[in-house]
């Protein structure tokens, strides 16, 4: 009979492959935005933070199986597993928070098109990140500390780290998943509100007065940007919400995951994560300016910077 350590390797390998995919598809966007001044907008800053967060998750998925292969004893230790799951949890929570700010950014642009550049700046994005990153870190630290103080200690060896979420977090899984789902729900509510307003703007048949022309042109530009970002929001929700809902239900009913069920959940989550990053990259490239900048970065001699 195969040993538990050997049976856990296919999950680590699948995580390694998806991690490489995440890093390769998410690392390009922040590099392109940082290199070109005309792409440094509040919206692109939000997406850059999302990409950086995804890259960190991808690196953990790549490094964990690498450590498992090169240093088996360290790779199976509970300390490494707690570190990997903590980093992934913080990044997941930060991503959800940034998606909320991104939806709020689009709502501000649709409802206040002319004063939007004054309301949302690079400084605004920095404040939003300060309101997202530290609370996410404190939330994860609190759940882990609560588990260590109130529940039995962790075993020395955790062979299947990626499916040991409830073992590592304990009762804090309900709090962490509940907060994430609350933020996701607020993001979806904002997206629906902006979608209804965007449809009203695009279907408006009334000819604007001369003093309304600038606002109408600016508004239509923001609407087009929103429809471009809406695909990102929908992809994010379709691919990641089912995982959060399932984890929350398991935490609420205190249902321990069986080995087969946890492996199926992990494989399904990896497939959804890969689909999300592939489709996400296509969405980014559907923006003409970003597509041209990416082509210029990869094939500088054949493509100019501007479309």
Automatic annotation (TrEMBL):
It is a multi-pass membrane protein. Pfam families: 7tm_1. GO terms for cellular component: membrane. InterPro entries: GPCR_Rhodpsn (IPR000276), GPCR_Rhodpsn_7TM (IPR017452). Keywords: G-protein coupled receptor, Membrane, Receptor, Transducer, Transmembrane, Transmembrane helix. Its main location: membrane. Residues 25-284 form the G-protein coupled receptors family 1 profile domain. One of its GO terms (molecular function) is G protein-coupled receptor activity. It is found in: Membrane. The chain crosses the membrane at residues 12-33, 45-64, 76-104, 125-145, 174-196, 228-253. Signal peptide: none annotated. Belongs to the G-protein coupled receptor 1 family. This is G-protein coupled receptors family 1 profile domain-containing protein. It comes from Amphibalanus amphitrite.
């Amino acid at each position: 009979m195969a040993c538990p350590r050997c049976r856990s390797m296919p999950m680590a390998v699948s995580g390694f492959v998806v991690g490489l995919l995440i890093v390769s598809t998410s690392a390009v966007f922040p590099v392109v935005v940082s290199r070109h001044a005309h792409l440094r907008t509040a919206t692109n800053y939000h997406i850059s933070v999302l990409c950086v967060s995804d890259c960190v998750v991808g690196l953990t998925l790549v490094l964990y199986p690498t450590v498992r292969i090169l240093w088996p004893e360290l790779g199976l230790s509970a300390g490494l597993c707690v570190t990997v799951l903590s980093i992934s949890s913080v990044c997941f929570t930060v991503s959800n928070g940034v998606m909320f700010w991104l939806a709020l950014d689009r709502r501000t642009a649709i409802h206040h098109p002319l004063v939007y550049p004054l309301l949302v700046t690079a400084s605004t994005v920095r404040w939003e990140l300060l309101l997202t990153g530290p609370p996410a870190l404190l939330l994860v630290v609190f759940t882990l500390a609560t588990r260590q103080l109130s529940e039995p200690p962790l075993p020395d060896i955790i062979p299947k780290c990626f499916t040991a979420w409830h073992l590592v977090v304990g009762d804090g899984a309900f709090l962490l998943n509940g907060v994430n789902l609350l933020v996701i729900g607020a993001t979806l509510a904002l997206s629906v509100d902006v979608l209804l307003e965007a449809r009203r703007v695009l279907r408006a048949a009334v000819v604007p007065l001369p003093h309304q022309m600038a606002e109408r042109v600016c508004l239509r530009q923001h609407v087009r940007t929103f429809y471009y970002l809406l695909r990102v929001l929908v992809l994010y929700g379709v691919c990641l919400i089912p995982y959060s809902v399932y984890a929350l239900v398991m935490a609420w009913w205190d249902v321990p995951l069986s080995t087969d069920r946890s492996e199926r959940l992990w494989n399904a989550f990896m497939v959804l994560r890969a689909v999300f990053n592939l489709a996400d990259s296509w969405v980014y490239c559907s923006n003409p300016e970003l597509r041209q900048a990416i082509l210029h970065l990869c094939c500088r001699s054949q493509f100019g910077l501007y479309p």
